[in-house]
Amino acid sequence: MAPNPNAAPILFDRALLRARQHRALKQGAATFLLDRVTEEMDERLHAVLRTFTSAADIATPGDGLRAALAARVGTLTHIAVPDNERDGLGLAPASLDLVVSALALHFVNDLPGVMAQISRALKPDGLLLAAMLGGDTLTELRQSFAAAEAELEGGISPRVAPFADLRDVGALLQRAGFALPVTDVDRVVVRYDSAFALMQDLRKMGATNVLMERRRTPSRRATLLRMAQIYAERFADPDGRIRATFDVIWLSGWAPHESQQKPLKPGSAKASLADAVKGLKA
Question: Could you say which of 3.30.2000.30, 3.40.50.150, 3.50.50.60, 3.30.379.10 is the CATH number of the domain covering 14-256?
């Protein structure tokens, strides 16, 4: 069968991601960022004055989110994104009141396709609430690796996954057919003793490099040491500790329903802008 020219590019090795997340959980995961997102998601849902009887959690690592939301949702089913995303999520149309996802969607190859599946799976007036890494996440690590490799190896290899920005995510919600889409960013800056301490935490998150085009040979020791040196030179505070940025993009949207607010039709306003301006000048 000929390849589909419209298929989403395969950026991430999802089988490797699953293996690394499993290893992180088994060895003692670093969950500080996920814990923060879980607490925030619980608070955001408490602001929604309605009952959710049937919900799905899309690929959130661990079971902390489902435990936190158990009292808010009748049934909350964990849905894994398959290694071959063309197999789909297996969500029945118009079957869910709520879909949540925490720190997982940035590792999806076909995010528009997943969003479209979620939109179809929600009942009218059903809610999607998700958080994913984006924006300038790990920009310091990316820049430091790039500078070290360019200096010592004469080229740059893919080290940190590409992240969507806020405008991209907002447009994606609209494209998938969500009503009342909202996006915002929570910037979390974490400080470490060194770049190596940051990389250790990334391993404990199961969030190390899973790009399909990643370098397959071990990094040179000299390059790693130079990367850490550059990181400390460019991104350290006066006390010598380095900064690592994590931009958490929050996104929410509703399946369309006739009860929702809608923008006024063009020409339906009862007063013109020109008349309003004249009133201000009077």
Answer: 3.40.50.150
